[in-house]
UniProtKB/TrEMBL annotation:
GO terms for cellular component: mitochondrial matrix; ribonucleoprotein granule. One of its GO terms (molecular function) is kinase activity. Residues 614-671 form the RAP domain. GO terms for biological process: mitochondrial RNA processing; regulation of mitochondrial mRNA stability. InterPro entries: FAST_kinase, FAST_Leu-rich, RAP. Its main location: mitochondrion. This is FAST kinase domains 2. Keywords: Kinase, Mitochondrion, Transferase.
Amino acid sequence: MNNRAGSFLWNLGQFSTLSPTSRTGRLNPLGFCLPKIAYSNWNRKNHLLNDFDNKTQSSIRHLFQDASIFKTGGDVFQTKGISPVTTLTITRLFCPRWLSFDSEQSPVPADGLRKINLHPEASDEDILTKRTKPTPVNFKKLVQGNSLSDVLDSFSNAPTFPCSNYFSAMWTIAKRMSDDQRRFEKQLMFNHPAFTQLCEHMMREAKIMFYDHLLFSLYAIVKLGIPQNTLLVQTLLRVVQERINECDEKCLSVLSVILEALEPCKNVDVLRSGLRILVDQHVWKIERVFTLQAVMKSIGKDAPISLKKKLEMKALKELDRFSVLNSQRMFEVLATMDHRSDVLLDECSKMVIGNINGCPLKILITILQSCRDLRYRNLDLFKGIADYVVTTFDVWKLKQVLFVLILFENFAFRHAELMDLFMKKVVDERGFLTMKSIVPILHVYSSLNHPHGGPAREFLDAMGAALTGYLQHISSENLLNAVCSFCLMNHFPLAPINQLLQKDIIDELLMSDNKDRNAYKLQILAACLKLDDVPCHKALDSVLPSLPPAPLHPNAKVAELLSSLLGEGYFLQNVQLPHNHHIDFEIRMDSNRSEVLPLSDANAESSATNIQRVAVLCVPRSTYCLDLTHPRGFLAMKIRHLKVMGFHVILVNNWEMEKLEVKDAITFLKSQIYSTENPPAADVNFQSTC
C-alpha cells in the first residue's frame, strides 16, 4: 500500500512539473489551424491537476529568437516570426510512461489527461470504452505502411508512447520513396489533421523519453524537412542540450549526424560546443571507428586545434581496425574538420589503392575533392585512381570521367593514358560536346599541355567545330576562355576568334567585373596571333589597355652564380620583352654557343646573324605538372614564343637550385649554357629546352 501511495504521489509530482501555469490559449507548434482530435474517454471535468494550476510553471523555455511558425498555402510554406517573449501554453498533457496504467490501455490522448480510476471497480462507461478502443500499432507495423499519412492515421486512432516512433517510422517510409513522391507525401503530412497533435506530443514528451529516442526523433524530424526555425525543432534542440550528459557512444554518433544536417543557429552552436566538451572528456573511451569519424565530422572547422590533434591521435591509434570503408571515409572526415594529417592520409591512401577494384566512382570523386580541400597531393593515389578509371572506362559516363579530369587538373596531375582515351571517346561521340562541357574540357587539356600527335589534331578540330556551333549562344567570357585555351594549345579556329575580335564583345569584356583578367587573356590572344603567324586581319594592340608590369622576383642565388661563372657585364637581369613576356636573365653568345659575348660587343653587333640570345627562366613548381617533368600550358606557350623571338631557353627549377651546393650549381649552369644538345629530361634534375 505504501508503495502504491508513493507511486501515486510521485506521478502527481511529474504532472506538476509538466503542467503549464495558464490555459488561456494553445500555441500550435507548426502554426497549422487544424481541428482537434476528439477521444471518447476524455472528460475535461475529470482533470486531476486543477489544484496545481496556480503552482506550476511550464518546463519548456522559449529562448528561440529564430523560431517561427508556418502554415501551408497550396504548395508554398509561409513563415511568421514569433516574438522572443512568447510563452507556450499547453492545455493537454501526455501521460509519462512511468504511470502505472493498464498495459492494454492506450496512452493519454492529445486533448487532455485521462481519468485515473483509483477504485478497483470499473464503471460501465470505462469498460465500454476499453472494449471499443482501437489497438495501438507498434513500430514494426508502422514502417510497413506505404505513405506518411498511414502513420499519422495510426497515431490519431490509437496514440502510443513514445511518439518518436511515429516520426522515425515516417522517415523510414520516406527513404523508400522517389524524390517526387517524397515531396508529395511530405505535403500531405503537413496538411494532415493529426500532424500538429503529434508535434505537440513530441514537445511534451521530450523531457521524459529515453535520450536515444529523443535523438532519433529529432533526426527524423530534420530529414523530413520540418523547418529548423520552427518551435518544434528549437524546443528539441534545447532539450537535447539540457540532457547531453546522458549521451552514450550510440547517442554520440546520432547527435553528430544530426549536427551535420543542421544549419548554424544559436541553439545548434551551443549544442556543438557541448559536444566538443563531451568529446574532449571521453575521446579515449570511444570504441567504434564509425562513431569516431562521425564525431570528427561534426565538431566543425573552428574547433580548437588541441581537440583536432587529440582526435587525430585517437584515429592513428585505431588504424589497425580501419576497414576499407573507414579508410575511404577518412578523407572526407578530415576535409570536413579542416585538419590535414599526412600520416593518416598516407595510410588511408594505401588502403584505398589496395582495395580500389569495385569502388564506386562517386567515392573516388569524394576522395579527390577532399584531397583538393586539404591541399594533399599523393602521386601514387592519383595514379591508382586514374589507372582504375582507365581499366573500367567503358562503365562510366563521359560526364563522370570529365569530372575526374577536372579534379586531376586542380592537382596539376596529368595521366596521359586517361587523357588520350578521353580524347578518342570525344572524337567518336561528338554529341557529348555541349556548351557546358566544351569550356572545361579545353581548360583541362590546355592547362596540362597535353595534346600531342595525330589524335590530338582530330580532337582539337572536333572541339573547334563544336564551339563554332554554339557561337550564337555562348557568353563573351566563356568564348574568351575557350579561345585562350585553344591559343595555349597552338590551335586557332578562325570562326570563334573572329567573333571574339568584334568590337562590341571586346568592349563588353573590358567593362565587366573581371576586366583585368579578361585584358590579360586578350593580351595572350594578341601575342599568339602575331607570334604564331595566324592569318587574322584584325589587330588587338590598339584597343587593349596596357597591363601593369609583372612583379619581379629575382633569384639572388642564380644571379650570384652567373656573376661567378661569367663575370659582371656578361648578362642582363629582369628583361622585359614585347608581347608582355618577361625573362629572368639574358645571355648573348656566338652562334655555336661556345663563347659568351660581353654586352657592349653584343649590342654593337645586335643585327649580326652570328649572335645567339639565351633566356634563363627561373621557374617554380607550379609551372610543371605534378610529376615535375612536363611543363604546363602557360610555360609551354612562353617557351614557344621565346623560340619564335630567337631565344634558346634554359629552365632552372628554383626548388632544385636551392638544394644544390655552390660548386654543383655552377657545374649545372655551365653545362646548360655551353651545351649544344639538350640532355633528356630524365637524365638531369633541370629541364632545358632549345
